[in-house]
């Protein structure tokens, strides 16, 4: 296993914490002025028990990354609450539940390439691309004279994901979204 700095922890990573393997669900860099210093606020889920925990890890600390076998796969389609992936090397299919993909399934469109991590021949996590392009299916209409200000409006994507977008972005447009933070990046 390899040690990495706490600042290198990303959503979807697998880390060893308290002698268990955890999948990172959320990861925020927090900097508190003054004495507090900076730390990473990490929400993670135990892959065996399914329990969740929040941990504060100092930015200068190192954590163990779990040894995993990454496999390049393509998301094919959704079948009810199951998501079907295909291994790019041997064309085997893998079913993952919506619960397993918690917080990630809303970024998946058919033919999206992802990395599925395996530990002891069992799927334990999915690593999404850094950003995805999705189409807006519903948002408030554009206001005349609206410019890129600090006011944002909610927009529903084709996958059901809701993202805050600038007022000039319209329904039917494709936008690029950061998969780590779930934030609008730019028009695509």
UniProtKB/TrEMBL annotation:
InterPro entries: Elong-fact-P_C (IPR015365), NA-bd_OB-fold (IPR012340), Rib_uL2_dom2 (IPR014722), Transl_elong_fac_P/YeiP (IPR020599), Transl_elong_KOW-like (IPR013185), Transl_elong_P/YeiP_cen (IPR001059), Transl_elong_P/YeiP_CS (IPR013852), Transl_elongation_fac_P (IPR011768). Its main location: cytoplasm. GO terms for molecular function: translation elongation factor activity. Keywords: Cytoplasm, Elongation factor, Protein biosynthesis. Coiled coil: none annotated. It comes from the Bacteria. Residues 132-187 form the Elongation factor P C-terminal domain. It is found in: Cytoplasm. HAMAP family: EF_P. This is Elongation factor P. The lineage of its organism: Bacteria, Pseudomonadati, Pseudomonadota, Betaproteobacteria, Nitrosomonadales.
């Amino acid at each position: 296993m390899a040690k990495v700095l706490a600042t290198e922890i990303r959503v979807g990573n697998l880390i060893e914490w308290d002698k268990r393997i955890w999948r990172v669900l959320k990861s925020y860099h927090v900097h508190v002025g003054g004495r507090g210093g900076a730390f990473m606020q990490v929400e993670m889920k135990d892959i065996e028990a399914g329990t969740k925990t929040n941990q504060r890890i100092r930015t200068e600390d190192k954590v163990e990354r779990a040894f995993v076998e990454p496999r390049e796969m393509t998301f094919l389609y959704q079948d009810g609450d199951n998501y079907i992936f295909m291994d790019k090397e041997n064309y085997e299919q893998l079913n993952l539940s919506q619960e397993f993909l918690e917080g990630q399934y809303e970024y998946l469109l058919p033919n999206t390439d992802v990395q599925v991590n395996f530990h002891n021949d069992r799927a334990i996590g999915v690593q999404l691309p850094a950003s995805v392009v999705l189409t807006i299916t519903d948002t408030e209409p554009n206001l005349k004279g609206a410019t890129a200000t600090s006011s944002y409006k909610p927009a529903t994507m084709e996958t059901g994901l809701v993202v805050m977008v600038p007022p000039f972005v319209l329904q039917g447009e494709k936008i690029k979204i950061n998969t780590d933070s779930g934030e609008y990046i730019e028009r695509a």
